[in-house]
Amino acid sequence: MFISPLFGRLAAAISLVGIIGLAGVLSLRTLGAADHLDPPLRTDPNADTNPDKAADIADIYLFQTANDLIMAVTFGGPQATTLPASYDPDLVYTLQVSNDGDPLTTEFPIQIRFGLDASGNAGVRVTGLPGGVTIEGPVETDLSANGITVRAGLFDDPFFFDSQGFRETRSSGNLAFNNQRDFFGSQNITAVVVEIPLDQVRDGNKLIDLWSEAFRFGVQI
After folding, report:
1. Which residue range forms the structural domain that includes residue 83?
2. Which of 68, 105, 161, 206 is the most exposed, fewest CB within 10 Å of its CB?
3. 180: Cβ–Cβ under 8 A, 6 or more apart, which residues?
4. Does 118 fall in a domain?
5. Residue 165 is assigned to a structural domain of this protein
6. Structural domain includes residue 168
7. How far is the CA of 214 from the CAs of 82, 133, 159, 163, in angstroms?
8. What is the pLDDT of residues 2-52, one digit of tens each?
9. DSSP 92-119
10. What is the pLDDT of residues 126-162, one digit of tens each?
11. How far apart are the C-alpha atoms of 145 and 24, rounded to whole Å?
């Protein structure tokens, strides 16, 4: 299920978040990035009548606990709760982790692939984890090896945004946001969550940077 040749990079969704030590002090670095429905000519239904929805990275998240680093990448949404998750075997998603304080390097190039078994059940394979660990198994399951845990599946979209207020603000020039309105609150999204012990990824008190990309195998449908 993992034999297609790689033809090219589809899109990059880049967000850099730094973590300093164990105190949990967050430092935000900014860089040009894609978000939902980017690039429009590949993923936006208003620009493409057959959009590559599964390849559309929505958000990435980076959290720290006292002992662990938790990363997540969401894609293929948002969508109605009646729709299934996006497990496209012809896509590669990456979590590019840098721990040397230089956001342009990648010390842990984590790759995420999906596949189907003979019965049509979806599975996930995650490679490039610290220590050369590979984790593989069914989706919607906590998979663990060497202290690292991975879960791929359908989640309530965690992003919060008042899209109505955004449109009204743009059209009127007056702030119209309402924190009781969440466009994503009643929608789902596919996500992969990776939890790694901090001592496997941290390099002293240097910043930890994270960005994500999606690559399409073969030609776009």
Report:
1. 6-158+189-217
2. 105
3. none
4. yes
5. no
6. no
7. 25, 21, 19, 25
8. 222 222 333 333 333 332 222 333 344 555 556 666 666 566 667 666 777
9. EEEEEEE-SS-TT--SEEEEEEEEE-TT
10. 999 999 999 999 999 999 999 999 999 998 888 777 7
11. 25
Strand pairing partners for 25? Answer: 20
Backbone angles phi, psi at 178, to 5 degrees: -130, 120
State whether residue 62 is helix, strand or coil.
strand
- How far, CA to CA in Å, does 159 sit from each of 163, 188, 201? 12, 10, 26
Residue 184 lies in a domain: no
Q: 215, 2 in Cβ contact below 8 A?
A: no
Q: How many residues make up the chain in this entry?
A: 221
Element (H, E) at 156: strand 148-156
CA 60 to chain centre: 5
Number of domains composing the chain: 1
